[in-house]
Amino acid sequence: MKAVLMRMWAVLVVGAMAASVGCGGGGVERVDVFGAVTYQGEPVKDGSIMFVPQAEGATAGTNITDGKYAAEGDGGVPPGKYFVKISSTVEDKENWVEDAMPIPPSKELLPEKYNATTELTLEVPSGAGELEQNYDLQ
Q1: Confidence of residue 14 (pLDDT cuts 50, 70, 90)
Q2: N or C: which end of the chain has fewer CB within 10 A?
């Protein structure tokens, strides 16, 4: 369930950031950050990636689909230093009590060192325009 909430949070943050920028241009500088995410040599089929500021600032994030992600345009990442949280979940029907829970809980497929207690970091330089960052998780 924690992973589902983390994923929902990422989608809400990205949506709020896009809405706050508006249509008039200007605003916060954003860098298009994109790349591939693999776990044990295989593309992460479905997940999310979040860029959480190490100091002040807004969190950015996007979905991972078939091992690829792209935080671009208004959903890009502002320059700065970030902790990177990568999550991939599946329904945990094994622990689902249908009468007590409306939806099955989720189970995280990746180790905590990539999400809850992340060891991943990224520095996004000002003026970069775009930055390719691949993650080969073991």
Answers
A1: very low
A2: C
